[in-house]
């Protein structure tokens, strides 16, 4: 989503963003669970690891990382991986985490949970003196579905098997539609305003100038279109087409040359 935004954002837009108090809206605090969720990664991130996560996984520049992290200074979010407490067994699956994984839980205590059958057999042998053959005979009693806050600290909890109608989502989650749908909607709105005469018809320069005072950018009116838009949408709109895509486009012959 935002893995290469420095490379693909025009200089004028990048300079404008640095002057605005913009943060990454896809990093969300779930107050009911006291966890910070990175929605593109579908994982919980402890506050002390948020800077590293944004830097290594999303290549977010320092200034934007500081602004994003500052949002969570006063919230009771999990500080470390040890603070990511498993939810209660039997909870509904959380839709903003990876789908529940088939796993195993110990029917004799609440400690033994794993997606590895061998680990469960070792657990019941050590804790409950139950042989591996007995486990195999009663394997159906161990079968379950598990979720975890993060793969880096797999503290599992058992979720309900019927997750078709009971999945819990982040309240007020910002990304209910895809980037492509957002961009298509923006294009439709721009076309409507142009037809309504809402935008002045300024002849755009053939050159791609990056001074915000040039005719080209005034004609685009990008500050108007991107006002109050989330950072990931600005990034997507500013991204350059790939070389492969441009090779597939043919504009026909011009002055004897194939364009």
Automatic annotation (TrEMBL):
Pfam families according to UniProt: OrsD (PF12013)
Protein name as it appears in the record: Uncharacterized protein
Organism (species): Pyrenophora teres f. teres (strain 0-1)
């Amino acid at each position: 989503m935002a893995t290469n935004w420095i490379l693909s954002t025009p200089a004028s837009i990048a300079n404008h963003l640095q002057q605005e108090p913009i943060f990454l809206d896809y990093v969300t605090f779930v107050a009911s669970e006291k966890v910070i969720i990175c929605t593109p990664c579908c994982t919980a991130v402890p506050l002390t690891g948020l800077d590293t996560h944004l830097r290594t996984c999303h290549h977010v520049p320092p200034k934007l990382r500081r602004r994003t992290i500052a949002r969570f200074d006063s919230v009771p979010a999990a500080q470390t991986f040890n603070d990511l407490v498993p939810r209660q067994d039997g909870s509904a699956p959380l839709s903003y985490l990876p789908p529940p994984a088939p796993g195993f839980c110990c029917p004799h205590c609440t400690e033994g949970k794993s997606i590895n059958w061998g680990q469960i057999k070792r657990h019941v042998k050590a804790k409950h003196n139950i042989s591996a053959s007995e486990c195999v005979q009663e394997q159906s009693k161990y079968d379950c579905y598990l979720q975890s806050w993060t793969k880096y600290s797999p503290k599992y909890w058992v979720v309900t098997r019927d997750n078709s109608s009971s999945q819990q989502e982040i309240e007020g989650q910002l990304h209910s539609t895809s980037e492509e749908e957002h961009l298509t909607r923006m294009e439709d709105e721009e076309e409507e305003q142009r037809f309504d005469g809402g935008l002045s018809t300024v002849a755009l320069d053939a050159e791609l100038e990056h001074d915000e005072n040039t005719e080209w950018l005034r004609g685009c009116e990008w500050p108007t279109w991107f006002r109050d838009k989330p950072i990931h949408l600005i990034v997507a709109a500013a991204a350059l087409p790939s070389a492969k895509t441009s090779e597939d486009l043919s504009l026909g012959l011009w002055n004897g040359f194939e364009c």
